[in-house]
# Entry
Amino acid sequence: MKTFINEDFLLQNKMARRLYHDYAENTPIFDYHCHLNPQEIYDDTRFTDLAHAWLGGDHYKWRVLRAAGVPEEYVTGSAPGREKFDRFAAVMPGLIGNPIYHWSHLELKRFFDVDELLDPATADEIWAKANEKLQSPAGSARSLIRESNVRALCTTDDPVDSLEWHKKLAADTSFAVKVLPTFRPEKAMNVTDLGYPAYLQKLGAAANLYIRTLDDVKQALAARMEYFAACGCRLSDHSFGSPDFTVWDESAAEQAVHKALTGEPLLDYEAMAYQSAVMDFLGGLYAEKGFTMQLHLGAIRNLHTKRFRALGADIGCDSIGDPIPAASLAALLDRLAARDALPQTILYTLNAADNDKLSAAAGCFQDGPGAGKIQFGSAWWFNDHFDGMTAQLKSLANIGVLSHFIGMLTDSRSFLSYPRHEYFRRILCRLFGEWVEQGMAPGDDKLLGGIVRDICYGNVVRYIGLED
# Structure
């Protein structure tokens, strides 16, 4: 059966179609938050087959395979790639309504010119067609990025990283796409984690500092941030569940470091005090260095303990957590703003119940010098589907200023994920088209088209400071 992915997919009226095809479709991509491996970009990795390129590392697809009863051997296990692909092809017809149904067919269409729906009957043809490209020069990591019209992307990197591959990419004049690191001190924030003491040893070694105290932690992070800045870093990233930044107690934060290093159990209060103190310190440094601070909120991770112990993190066993208390978010932002040390900040939520809360909170701290200093970030993870993206856009439009929004990102480990930007752009243009059709916006395609183009690319280029 022919695919439903045609040129007007999701574009339900003339204005939506004009906005997409004239303003959004060919606009470049700045993927300012992803999890691609910079070494794979530098090495211009070639993929063994479609399973390697498309299913490897993709926890979205792993979740639906498990939900369909596919054994783990064909998900993250040692089964041959073709057998994993066949299992996915068998599951695909039942995924109507899940965003993976849309994403997967967009990916097959855009990268491999596949015009058929994926199912067991078409699996042989699609496997052969995709592998033919992947095994050609056009199927390498760099080629896939270029084909997607990507101008720049930001990976996600630990402070102890040497950034060796970023340096090599920056010096490689044969690849014009900017590949920038992002400072993500996740492990330094997880003071209750059993691996925290060992991680501090690595952090100290990277910073040439022996870490014994809270001040040592701060100094080590500051030193690594300086190094990241010298390597082109412009953003930081943090992921939290539902932290309590109202807790402010330096002595309790210091006690948290002491207990963690000596193997003593921490009180929740001490852990929260530590997170508040370190985030306050880092936020001030981000403002000083011109970094944008990203806060991902509302995740609860590694719910399936047995699977986590067997396979590790990021394998599809994270979920939507509790909303962040409004007072907690306000405490962090206000402490920084009170001393003129609040950096550009992007707020993301995994819990859609927080949409309006984050939109409203962002509006309280808009103090320039540019527009949209505090962003309500794109629909994230379990929300980056049709309904979730539409809800995020409407929330921002209702409570903030949608025209200043910095748009979509992939948040992905896959080189085949760039059609998610197309998906977002079609939904954005569809929404604008609906507003025009309902008499809620002027039928001025130049006015609306300029806003669409800015949301897709222009705003984030100005916000992050990419030279275009």
About this structure: The two ends are 42 Å apart (CA to CA). Residues 268-289 form the longest helix (22 residues). The mean pLDDT is 96.
